[in-house]
Amino acid sequence: MQYLGYGSGRGYPHDHTVWPAAGFAVLVMDTRGVSGTGGMPGVTPDPHGGSGPQVPGFVTAGIHDPERYYHRRVFTDAVRALHAAAAAPGVDPARIAVAGGSQGGAIAQAAAALHAHLPGPTPAAALIDVPFLTHVRRAVDITDSEPYRELVRYLSTRRHDVDEVFATLSYFDGLNLASYGSVPALYSVALRDPVCPPSTVFAAYHAWPGPKEIRVWPFNQHEGGGTEQRGEQLRYLRDLWG
Amino acid sequence: MQYLGYGSGRGYPHDHTVWPAAGFAVLVMDTRGVSGTGGMPGVTPDPHGGSGPQVPGFVTAGIHDPERYYHRRVFTDAVRALHAAAAAPGVDPARIAVAGGSQGGAIAQAAAALHAHLPGPTPAAALIDVPFLTHVRRAVDITDSEPYRELVRYLSTRRHDVDEVFATLSYFDGLNLASYGSVPALYSVALRDPVCPPSTVFAAYHAWPGPKEIRVWPFNQHEGGGTEQRGEQLRYLRDLWG
Amino acid sequence: MQYLGYGSGRGYPHDHTVWPAAGFAVLVMDTRGVSGTGGMPGVTPDPHGGSGPQVPGFVTAGIHDPERYYHRRVFTDAVRALHAAAAAPGVDPARIAVAGGSQGGAIAQAAAALHAHLPGPTPAAALIDVPFLTHVRRAVDITDSEPYRELVRYLSTRRHDVDEVFATLSYFDGLNLASYGSVPALYSVALRDPVCPPSTVFAAYHAWPGPKEIRVWPFNQHEGGGTEQRGEQLRYLRDLWG
Amino acid sequence: MQYLGYGSGRGYPHDHTVWPAAGFAVLVMDTRGVSGTGGMPGVTPDPHGGSGPQVPGFVTAGIHDPERYYHRRVFTDAVRALHAAAAAPGVDPARIAVAGGSQGGAIAQAAAALHAHLPGPTPAAALIDVPFLTHVRRAVDITDSEPYRELVRYLSTRRHDVDEVFATLSYFDGLNLASYGSVPALYSVALRDPVCPPSTVFAAYHAWPGPKEIRVWPFNQHEGGGTEQRGEQLRYLRDLWG
Amino acid sequence: MQYLGYGSGRGYPHDHTVWPAAGFAVLVMDTRGVSGTGGMPGVTPDPHGGSGPQVPGFVTAGIHDPERYYHRRVFTDAVRALHAAAAAPGVDPARIAVAGGSQGGAIAQAAAALHAHLPGPTPAAALIDVPFLTHVRRAVDITDSEPYRELVRYLSTRRHDVDEVFATLSYFDGLNLASYGSVPALYSVALRDPVCPPSTVFAAYHAWPGPKEIRVWPFNQHEGGGTEQRGEQLRYLRDLWG
Amino acid sequence: MQYLGYGSGRGYPHDHTVWPAAGFAVLVMDTRGVSGTGGMPGVTPDPHGGSGPQVPGFVTAGIHDPERYYHRRVFTDAVRALHAAAAAPGVDPARIAVAGGSQGGAIAQAAAALHAHLPGPTPAAALIDVPFLTHVRRAVDITDSEPYRELVRYLSTRRHDVDEVFATLSYFDGLNLASYGSVPALYSVALRDPVCPPSTVFAAYHAWPGPKEIRVWPFNQHEGGGTEQRGEQLRYLRDLWG
Fold first, then answer.
1. Does the predicted model carry a pTM greater than 0.90?
2. Any idea which architecture F13-241 has in CATH?
3. What is the ipTM of this complex?
4. In Å, how far from its chain's centre is CA F31?
């Protein structure tokens, strides 16, 4: 299972040849309502969108109500896509990994964590790179980069809604979700990442109760380990599943 | 009638004291779905939102279908707000002006133009400052500023949707709408405006068939005439209505 | 009494309708020698200017001599304008508030504080938003924004004049002046303000010996509380004066 | 044959799975002396480097002597890599395409063009995306982006060496090399490309005498057609070779 | 005679060793009221300053009155300094050159041109590099760089003062002054100069009726010919005076 | 002896008149392989360059091998240039000072330190301004400016080479070299220097065991003390040598 970063669409099959080339089937989940910016196009609508006022972006869409928050639908998509993957022909349901970087890391982290409370197949591993939407309260204080800045822009005008906004986010914050993580997880973090600050990633990593490893890239920004991390992931799954 | 610029919310009564101080009642239309960034908060939801994929922002929301395009709802709000204003106690329905700058200028322009095809009260004047969403095809070619750049970001990934996107926009482009404008209009344009380039504003001004004047501010950017234009508007309405 | 921010001119009556709309008479003091940039024009000359070398700007004008420092004239103007306001017809001299943000906050703070040593009417309240020229020595160390950076640019060339410059500034520093503040004061501070850093504002607030309140805006930059702070001020004066 | 963009290293096999997934063998040529920045690492030294003074970068390395210019060695590598590819087991020497974007586009263009004067196998197709080092004299006048700006920085100090520098570059300029191109070529160009301006790409395309097509991406910058262009290339080769 | 660029102070004798090393005595005129930014300190006050409102900077100081405009005093200083130089011991009054770059170029140009209408010694040559304050009306339209931008900032608020401002400037514009230039002049211009655009420099050069040469630096910005131009000047004076 | 900053070429005799004007002969060492950017041209080739992969720049050239690292050749040049200076006619070998700022400061520091282990003449004083390549491990962590950033860019892709890179650098790091410094040294440091952070300069200064002084410029960036420091140096040598 591959989840996508903020603003990326699903693209085409030829955009996702790495996993098949290594012998894994891959299912890519298009992030609903996202068209893609500068890269791969997405085509999946978000018919249930449309809610309260927001600033442009997907971080504040529906932020005043956990029931209508955009990421509720995205995380639900993620779990259901996992079920779809498990039911696909030729897939061993006991050997499904969820993977993603940035927003995709948040989704993978959530999908892996949420299964603990859900019926149906469970992922067997989680590959979580530089996850977004994790320890949000700290992130907005220490970084000025998008997409966390979307929250700051929102709260700079909705000056009285700070508590309500963070109450909604608490249901989706990777730091909280990670504490339900029981499957083996391979995290990565970049020490110069201005988008998803390292301390927010370490916080989630430390909260994850299952077996875990983390790769630390000291000279990288949000690109993280890049191709090296991809190699780490291939080796990790090989070691895990023989 | 006051319409708001892109990203601005309705704020509070004390944000709109100029017109009352000059003896005009004012009705401010909150732009649906917009929270406000860095300034006045908006509170009006957009319950009918939620459609195809988009990049963050309100320019590409629903862009693949004129029936579902975000500005269809906004322009409809504008016309209906005009009706509400006309029906308000103490308002002379024959002396209603629509006004706005930037996105608000686009809305005022649309509201003034659309009444030609609609039953109900008509505005008696239009005050249109540095309007956005006007001669869009040209704008995206000559400026790199937001919010026009939102279209460029969208089309940079949706490479095959250029014709479809501009087909939708043609229903909302101020250049087309201005050609229905019959009421007296006071435009303003700033010759160094990187957000709403002057040639796109002049195009709409020249297309407007009704009585019209334009104030040209040679050394200004998107702030346009600012307080001077406000003074021009006060004098213009005074001259118009005695 | 309204004092203006750095670089702003007095504008026109229609730029100052908020206070009258709320039932207060308002006197706006044009800041001498300032034309206004990008906004409201100012028209008041500074005939006594012209002194030692400076870098462009008003922070270093006359900086080598407290007798000739630009802000000496501005603060004197502020006190005299206060006297003029008190003598105006229809004004209750016991109910005058001084108000301003940024440089205007510095002027309001100074005007409120200086009356302790001066004959004549005293303001009854001070509304001080994100004040500039306050705890200057700290400000130049922790922010790189204009107009504090004007001092840094000056001292980067006048390398041997550091002590002399700060000696002059000590007469005008809001941190020192605040310690004379005895009237009720409503401060505001923005925790992400890069122009007037929050610690410099808190320093003055804590130094103010009179009755005081402060509104803290955690997600705002130099715009501070904006329209919300304006609402706070209206409520504050209403509570104070019934 | 895949050539790499400016500053990119060869990376790992898992960085190059697209072509194999589509049924093509792929040989990636590491660009000598380039370590890679922010992405894939390169490991190939440039033992013959070391020459006259230069500014940091590979565009001005050896610029005073066509015999010692850096790109002479790179283009030679490209031709020899082509020979190596043709001799590899399982490769049909009659069905080799050279491909690359940006600097890689310059190398592919050069490799395809130079074979006309060289013994040995010839490429059967060229896939040239947004090529760099093409119509250089024009490029330095109309763009301020790196890596063309490296030349401007050099000539801003070597003020008397303009003619000599462009004399060296004339041996390597894609506009000149393209005129030897006889094999089928699929170009791509992005109309908002600030790095390799479109007019420089069109110039080479028009100079190419062999069969040719070009894909024009109107809303893209240097990323060009991205995944869409990749799809075009896959279709193009399929059509060409059945 | 050496005049200084905008914002530069006179510094120390060891900042001006080039001319003496080449056998010329040098008199450096401190620009009044200027402290220097980031470089050489200036110490000369401008006691006659202090006039109408302005934006920070020396371009708009006194701009509403040719009698009180800042550059009137500076140009007068320049002529008087020339007289002082001519009267200094060891100076051959028939072999005085005025020199400067940027604002210093404007001053040198003015000093050389004004002598035609003045009694007293005349300079024998003018070395004018990338002069500022020349063809100002065009400059503000084609560049957005400081210090020309100071005028734009001023006029963006003083929207009704455009004609008056340019009327004042017409007395000091190098394009007008150059037409009085009768002594041999060596100009320089940089084709990528964003501060003093080349067309404004060429305009003055063409207006200069006396004997003249110009060095054109195609790859330079406002640094112009730098050390190469210094060499040109040394050769030029040597050729002129044997 | 004058060594040059990063990217500067040797220029012309008229670029180096300060020291002769003060009575000192000066020998300027061109930094090999450096053409100069935007300023003085350099003409000295680096025939022994050409080694492993690198990112553009001179900091990572040969970084994998202390024997082939670029600065090995530069520091060797510096020592040999010192010998050449000592042998020049009219030079008192007992009164040679090495001097430089930034990269030139690194070279001067190295040249002064290395003589302790070398036969031949020794410098009698070192003038070291804001030295580069000093306490490198700390510098890359606290500054994001070039040229230190060149290392970060390199290591962001060469993720596994961190130890090897710093092992090479340890032979050239000014912090290590300074500990061999026995001659009188005048350092300077600028407290706002983003290029060579002050803590890295202080570290070297404290490590220098010989007689030493340091000038601290609190409001300056990488320009350091500029003309004031030059004055300090002239006085320092005068005091030292009578």
1. yes
2. 3-Layer(aba) Sandwich (3.40)
3. 0.90
4. 11
